[in-house]
Amino acid sequence: MKKVLFSAVALLAFGFANAQEESKGNGGFSKGDVFVTGAFTFGSTNDKDSDVKTNGFEIAPKVGYFLTENIAIGGKIGYSSMKEESSGVDTEDMAGLTVGAFGRYYFTPANQFSLFANLGLDYSSMENKLADSKVNGFDAGLGAGLNYFVSSNFSIEAGVAVLGFSSEKSDASGAKGTTGFNFGGDWRTVSFGVNYKF
């Protein structure tokens, strides 16, 4: 029995050591690398009690490029749409466009695991088609994150906002703008994503 147990432990230890050796060759970024990520979501609800139906979707690709070993820059564009209908009558019809740019500094980009600092700037415009009005906004944010390669091309990313500023204003006559400022990492709102490196 002891021999069987010892053999099983030895086999597991060998397998773990072999997996660790293989993982050393996984991933990492270098100058000239390009990575893509983003979002695609679709949702639909149908509340039969109130006869309210809601449909929405968002598509938001993001591309980054490594200018140097540690510095990456990139851009993103996104489009979203949300429609709500109650008893066969449209009650909400919204569409939004977002464009943005970002810059990142990776502390150990060539490694499988790396921490980074992220600075992002976004401009967005949300149109209410039923009210024939628009709200335009600007967001700037500083954040921190980590990147972990699970293979030579795919990595998992997690990030949290640290410092943020936002400003928005309706295009309605006489409308006043609103601004917001926040500081501090909220670990309840960590974002997760998957990157593909070319």
Poorly predicted ranges = 1-24
Q: How many β-strand stretches?
A: 9
DSSP helix fraction: 10-25%
Task: For the record, give the distance between the C-alpha atoms at the N and C termini, rounded to a whole number.
Answer: 50 Å
Task: State mean pLDDT (0 to 100 scale).
Answer: 86
What's the shape?
globular
Strand content: over 45%
Tell me the strand order in the biggest sheet: 1-2-3-4-5-6-7-9
Keywords: Signal
Protein name: Porin family protein
Pfam families: OMP_b-brl
Organism: Flavobacterium celericrescens
Task: Report what the structure shows.
This protein is mainly beta and 198 residues long. It has one domain: Beta Barrel (Porin). Helices cover 11% and strands 64% of the residues. The chain has 1 helix and 9 strands. It has one helix at 2-23; strands at 34-47, 52-66, 71-86, 89-106, 113-128, 133-149, 154-170, 178-183, 191-197. It has an 8-stranded antiparallel β-barrel with strand order 1-2-3-4-5-6-7-9. β4 and β5 (113-128) form a beta hairpin. The longest helix is centred in the first third of the chain and has 22 residues, at 2-23. The protein is globular and about 55 Å long. Mean pLDDT is 86; it is low at 1-24.
